[in-house]
Amino acid sequence: QNEEKWDFVLVSDIHEMGSEKEIKRKKFLDELSKKGFTIKKIEDRKLFYGVRAPQHIFWKYQRLLTNSDSRQQNSSAHQDVPVTTRIRVVHFVLQNTVTSDLEKLHDLMRKKVFETAFPLHKKEEITEILKKKWARWRVIFKEQPIEAIRCYFGEKVALYFAWLGWYTYLLVFAALAGLTTVVAGATVFSSSQVSKEICDANNTIMCPLCDQNCSFWVLSDTCTYAKVTHMIDNEATVVFAIFMAIWATVFLELWKRERATVVNDWDLYGWDEEEEELALHLINNSQHEPQPYQHSYFCSTIVLVLAVLMIMVLIGIAHALVIYRAVAMALFTQSEVNLLSKHADTIAVMTGAVLHYITIVIMTKVRSHQGPWALLPFLEKPRTFSQYENNFTVKIFIFQFFTNFSSLIYVAFFLGRINGHPGHYVRIAGHWRLEECHPSGCITDLFIQMAVIMLLKQTISNIMEYLIPWISHQLRKKQKPSKKRSVMLGEEEEEEDPCKKQWLKNYELNEVNVFSLFNEYLEIVIQYSFTTIFVAAFPLAPLLALINNIIEIHMDAIKMMRLRRRMVPRKAKDIGIWLQVLEAIGILAVIGNGLVIAITSDFIPVQVYKYMYSPCTRENHTSMDCSTGYINNSLSIFHIQDFEPHTKPGLALMELCCRYRDYRNADDYTYTIQFWHIFAARLAFLILFEHVALCVKLIAAWYIPDVPQKVKNEILTQKYTKLHNELRWVMPWKVPG
What Pfam families does UniProt report for this protein, alphabetically (predicted)? Predict the structure, then answer.
């Protein structure tokens, strides 16, 4: 029975006898044999080598590290340490075994000596529990078996699912708040004076939206757009933005408490990753000398320059999307198809958003080829894999963040503000005008952009994320082994070997690597950015994130248990650098939402008008809505004779002037005093909003302790008990006579 328990399987192509690859493979396996490893060979369409570590390796591990292994229950008759610890130790020894040619396993894999190495999914009680209670769609609303996940996949994976479950649970409150905001916008604020004025503006002639073949248009034609805008852009949005800033802080603070409780239950609170790494090195090679910490300012400068170049490339891609929107707007407006010409601005925004989604998919594929990206952190000379992983995480997150948000930043803060004015438009290559904002504001453009990207990411991307591994697994299963080789070699008895079926079944699963869990984290953290940073423009983001996460948890579970090979379990006592990334996103969320309300939204211009320029300031009309006349006040007058000669509108009118959205004088088109009042009010609101929100975040962080008192008291008791027990072994000092 003991002979059938194998820690790892190495897979190799069948090489010719005496070939360089065959010699290198033999040298590596000989090194393992010298360390006391038991090796079993099975030949099929590939060569499979089962390896089992000697018991003394694990005795050394237990001797060097007093840890939580005694608490774990996932052990069997032939071993004294949990399966997760066995796999982790064996994986470390395999990766760090050096041949006489000074080559390690990853060098041999690169040279195609070995194809892959993996631990086994075994048919055990815990496997059946996870498949029944976790990795199936039927239990989608049930609580996750975190302890079972930990016993099978290790603490790092268990903490990911504990964090994802906690985030999903707290999203319920954010989703309800977002839904309430939208419902309030559609009911309480539906009878807006601003949208009413736009719908009634039958005689307000607006300036053409393009240079040639575009006619003047009537403001009331955009009545529906104005109503949708006000459904998002109202007083409730400001309250919701402040709520989300507080929610982001409370979520992280409560997670810290939850993590402390979980990690204390696992007896990992005092676990030290560096100590474990040194212990594993000594187990593998008792003569090992620790690698010292290093830092090179020159290498850090190179990394910084490369990172800036990378960001510039992504900003360039955002510029390309801006050019597309400007060209598309001009072409759609001039189109003979009535639907295109009538809704040119909305269609340009939506197709631009789809194009942005396509660039996200392409750039994600570029990023997923870890080759060049994986080399960047090595320039900083990391001492441990964990340090390398942290460096890698920060760089890839910045890359993905700019990929996802560069176009949104343009829509939120630059659209309609850098396009000039009639008679003096800013043009791309001197030909295409930049887009303008709708008279009711730019926030709907941001709403559409975010809605399209989030919906596409959560439908197409998630379907592909599940389908590709499933199809790949099905194709690998269809590659049936040839039985002739075994018969020719006289190995018919090996056909009945129970290990062969198990090893082949595991080999047919999709490959996993050290970045598999990283990719899952990255996907959810980018989603968290969408849920918090521009949520003032898209209050439904938390609801979409909630629906996505409920599906994501079980989709990841199914992939891990049924479609992928078993991950190498790793110990961890927190989610690592991702916590700092989430805290940075929380601060960006305060800044982003403050900017959206101050700049993108029409909230500030309306308030300035109400308190400084409306009829209410001149007369005491308690029954009058103080925003009456706002639209007329926010539109400037342009004299038609001042159009540039080559851009005369296609349709001449008897009117001498048209209107456009801006605060400019009618004679010389310079900014009015009202523009500067609004500018000052925007700046004051931004400073006030960010300081209040950040103060509330700091108070919430102080008010909610990171570690519960119960956990602190348990740790205190453990320390006291340990010291008290030690004291019994100390001989009392003899007091001189």
Answer: Anoct_dimer (PF16178), Anoctamin (PF04547)
